[in-house]
Every structure is written in structure tokens, then in C-alpha cells.
Structure prediction request, 735 residues.
Amino acid sequence: MYHLRIVLLLLFGLNYFGNASIAQTKTYSKKEITKLTDEASRYLKEANFEKSLDISKLALRSSINANDLYSAAISYITIAANYAEMAEFDKAIFFYDKSLSYADKTNNDTLRKRINNNLGNIYCFEKKQYEKGIKYYEKSLKYSQKLADTNQVFITRLNIAWAFFDIGLFEKGFPSLEFINKYNKKYGDATNAVAVNMLNGMYYGHKGDDNKATSSFLNAIKFGNEGNEKSDLSFSYLEFSKYLLKKGDYKKAYENLARYNIIIDELYNEEKIKKANLVGINLELEEYKREIDRIETEKLAQLQSLNKSKIIVLLFGVVFCFLLLLLYTLFRNNNFKKKANATLSQTNMELLVAKEKAEEANILKSQFVSTISHELRTPLYGVVGITNMLLDEHKELADSPHLSSLKFSARYLLSLVNDILQINKIEDNRIILESLTFNVSDEINMVKSSLSFLAKTNDNEVVVNIDPNIPEYLIGDKLRLSQIIMNLVSNALKFTKSGEVRIDVNLSKVEGESHFLEFKIQDNGIGIHLADQEKIFDKFVQVGRKETDYQGTGLGLSIVKQLLGLFDSDVSLESAIGKGTVFKFVIAFDFNPERTTEIINNIQVDMSSTQIVKVLVVEDNRINQVITRKTIEKNNYKCCVVDDGYAALEILEKENFDVILMDINMPLINGFETTRKIRLKGIGIPIVALTAFDKAEITEEALSAGINDIIIKPFDSIKLFKIISILISKSKSIA
Ligand code: ADP
Prediction:
């Protein structure tokens, strides 16, 4: 057995017998490493394990550093063989496994053959793990056959046969026995002869072929005694003794067993001496193992750090690629953005132009609507005025259907024009709410009385109910409020027959100066269908009306909604067909007693005066001249009419007037210019502008020209006289 194990170690080759200089720091060349491994093998053969291990360690470190995998495998084999020789079989197996891993790395079949055979030896004959060992032998056999190493094939098959026979599996071992018998002469030598004969003895003994068995055993013993294979000889005696015992030949069995014991004792003594030599180095064995482990760990760490570096380089590469990609994407995005921006700026430019055009168109539309409305209002004012005059002067025409039709149509047209103008202004954000002191009750009653005719026509009663908690004077835009109420009440009166229209005003809450008034306009008329309740607030929407019915323009509720929007309010509607309709809204008005008194004081007018007032009317339109003159003279005032501004300046040189009513839109020289010239002459007579323009539109220019007040045509005569009185009394008090 021992002999077989040694056989393969000899195959390493002993090319170098010199002493290896052991220097830890030195870097060894491949050739030097080979010298080291050879030297280690030589020391092993000489059983100088300490030296062998020392040099192996150096060889291993150097080969790992030089990345010489073959030499590393050889170093491990020598280390493993050292341990096997010292009967440290577990360690031997550990290092053979290591060597096998290096042999695999180099793909070296010679090394694989050798290591597998040695592992087979240890497992079968030292560890007694036959099955495992036989597997290693079979692997070794495969590599030997591949390499056509017939000697090795022979030895391995011999070992396989022996292993199978040892565990009684004779038939399994027989093919190997046949093989070694066949090739014994060719490949076998004297050293194998003992074992070959012994195996034949064992097989034939098992088969009961006594002659062949006995002669085989005797041949084995003969070759053993002639040669030097003590161990194999001892096993031959032992197996022969077992055979004789089985045969019942106790005497001979005993004799052979005694011879076995003698040889074993000799071998044991040799082993003992060897063991004794080992005591010293055994202490260092652990140290060697640790050192070898350290070399491995260092190598692993190097590999890991190499791997890490590789990973870092790889990562860097990936990141770099990613950055490149990102850069490229950014570049493309940038280009795309540039293009998109160019398109956007182009579109923006186009939009800007379109917006400017739209704004221009809107301004033009507003101007157009405004101009047309003004142009329409002046003649309409004439039509309405003349109709009234006709009715005044010719009472017999009061019942004329033509005249009343004319009056109705003219009024309708006038209200349509006014409504369109109003909507236009709200939509252009040209309406700014005024802060005037007013009495809610007065405003409501004014609406009531101005709609009394309509109420009468439809046989309706108007009931007004004002919350007594509402302060007498509030501050706000009473004009817009009356417009809202007027629209809602006139609708209620229009769509109710022989019913009742209620106007309720309640103080819903007070927050500081703000008094929130809730207005409720309720009728018990025809009602509004649920489906129509939303759309009636749209412009020009009339529900269930005949085309010939001119009782409205379809703008009333739209104006109401938009005016309420100016007050930050909205209208709510509840209605049921046949039962009636309720419109509700809330507006906050300011209540400030101090400001109120001041405003009221300012408008205290002495209306008692019965003096004769001389009025100069500057008006180019003939019809308007007639209407205004009639109105003024009806109030017993004196009236002088001139056609244009120059005529006015001329007459003022000669005559004195109490007040001047000045038309604004006049040919040659307009009302503002005329006023400026009058003032330049140092004439301070109060001047009231009479205009179809909206008050807000001209106020600024009028005041700067020196005009004292503005009255919008068609004017309410009472209002006109009130203003005239105030202005005259003011100018007199100054004088
Ligand atoms: P119009 O000038 O036709 O009155 P509005 O905008 O004021 O226009 O009203 C739109 C429509 O709403 C009216 O034509 C009418 O059908 C309906 N409507 C308004 N108020 C009432 C009401 N109090 N009762 C019944 N229907 C009403």
C-alpha cells in the first residue's frame, strides 16, 4: 500500500537536487519555481517532511504570485503527500482537493490522473471509504486512458481490483483482475508481482479453485521474499492465512499469520521511528496549514480586489456610456427644444398678431356699437319727443292707434339701443360703480311709479315692502340698482295678468359698514319652465314669445346678471309654471352717517324761488331744438336757442343768461371747445352738457373744459330742472 502511494510521487521527476534559497520577498521565475517544487518532492522522498513542506510553501506562494497554476497544483500535491506520509489523512485530502482545483484550472489531465489516484488510495486504504475511493480511481483511470498512460492504467486497475476484493465484491473487481493478468508481463514489473499474485489468490480462493489459489498465494510470497515489497508481502501472508482458515487448515493459517505479524512489527517499528521524527515537526504542522491558508486568502483578496477593480472599471464604463447617452439625449432635446421654441415663438408671434387683431376688432366693434347707438339715440330721442309733443298739443290724437303705435315702437327701439349699449359697456369693463347716497324706498317707489302704466295695462297690483331696519340713506350705485329692479319688475308685470307683483327688501346682515340687502321680486304670473330657467339669462333669449310681440328685447335678464356681477352678486330664480316666479339677489351697500349728511347738505336746494330763469340752448339738431325749447318753456323758463358754438359766443357778448344747455356733438366747434372759449372770456355761467353720450365717457373732458354738469338725452325734464336750480343757486351763493 505504502509502496503504491509512493509510486506516483516519483513521477514528479527529480530534475533538481540543489538547495533552494528561501527568501520570502524574492520574486521567482517559472524555472526557479519548478526547481523549488522538484526540491520539495526530493525532500519528501527522503522523508524530510519539514524541509519539503517549507519549500512547498515557498513554491506555492511564488507560483500563486506568478499566476503559475501548474506549479501551484504541484506544490499542493507535495504538501498533501507530506501530510499523507505523516498519516494526517484529512489534511492530505484537503490539500489534494486544492491541487485538483488548480489542475482543473490548467486543464492538465496528467495532474488530474495523479491526484485522483492518490485520493483513491487514501479513501480506500486509509479511510476505508471504498466506494468513494473507487470513484476516484475510476476518474484517474479515465484520464490515464485519455493520456494512453498504460503503466498508470495498469496500477489503477490493480488498485480497483484490490479495493473491490477487500470489500468482498469479487465479481466487480474481476474485470480489473483479468486486465492486470493480461498486461502483467507487458506493463507490470517486479514491484507489482506480489500484489498481482496475491489478488489472484484472493479471487481463486473466493471461487474455491484451491490449486490456483494456493499457487497464486505462494507465488506472491515468493516474489515478496525475493524483492523489497515488505508491505505487499505482509498482506500476502495475511490474505493466505485468511484463505487457509476458511479451508480449515488452522496450522498453516497460524504460521502465515505469524509471518504477517513479524513483518508488520518490523514495519511498525520503522513507522514508530518515523513517527518519533515527526514529533518535532508536528507542532509546526498547524502553523504550515495556517500559512498556506493565508497564502490562499491573500490570493483570494488579490483576486477580489482585481474583481473589484474590474467592476469599478466596468461601472465607470457603464456610467461613462450612460453620461454619453445622456449628453446625446440632452443635445437632441436641446435641438428639439430649439426647434420647438422657434415654432413656439413663431406661433406666439402669430397669436400676438391675432390677439392684437382681435383686440382691435373688439375695440372697433365697441366703437361701432357705441357710435351706432349714439347716432340712433339722437333721432330716436327726437321721435319720442315729437310724439309726446303731438300728444300734448293735440289731445284729440290721444286715442290714435297710429300715434300710440309710433310711440311704442320708438320707445322699444330706444330701450333696445340702450340695452345693447349697456351690455357692450359691461362686457368692455367700462362700467365703474358709483358711490351715491340714496334712499332704497325712494328708488323702489320710483321704479314702481315709472312702471305703473305697465301694471295698469295688465291689471296688476304692485306691493312694496321695505324692511324698517334698513338705514334711511345708504351709499352705492343707485342707478344700476334701479336698472336691475326695473328690469325684474317690468318682467314680472309683463308676464303676470291680473295678479300681484311684490317687491321685498330686507336687511339680511350687517358687517361693519356693509349692509347686505336682500331683494325679492315675486309675481304670481305664468312662471318659467324648469328647462328654460337657465337659458333665459343668455342674451336675446325669449321664451314662448311671438315674433310680433315687442314687449322686450331678450336682453333684460342678461343685463341684470351682468350688473349684479359688478356688485359681486348673483341672481337666483325659483319658478313654477302657472304659479309664478321669484327672483332674489343680495347687494351690500355702505352705511356711513357722516358721509351721508355731507352729501345731503351739498344737495340742499332752494326750490322755492320763483325767479325767471334765462336758458341758452346750444344745439344744432332742429328737432332737438324744438323739443328742448318746448320742455324749457313748459317750465316757464325763458329759452334762447342758437345753432352752433360761435353763435353762442356771439350772443353771450350781448346777453346775460342764467344757464347754458350745451350739446356736445356739433359741427364747426363742439360743446367742449365752445365751453373752453366761454370760460376764456371769463364767463362763469353754469353750463350743462346735453348729450347722447354716456356720462362716464365724457365726464373727464367735460369737467376740464369747464362744464358744470352733464345730462343724458333723452332727458328727464324734472331731473333737468333740478340740476338747473342747483347750479343757479350755487353760482348765486358764490357771487
Ligand atoms: P325680455 O326682454 O324678453 O323680457 P328678458 O331677458 O328680460 O327678456 O327675459 C327673458 C325671458 O325670460 C322672457 O322672454 C320670459 O320668457 C322669461 N321671463 C323673465 N321674467 C319672467 C317672469 N317674471 N315670469 C315669467 N317669465 C319670465
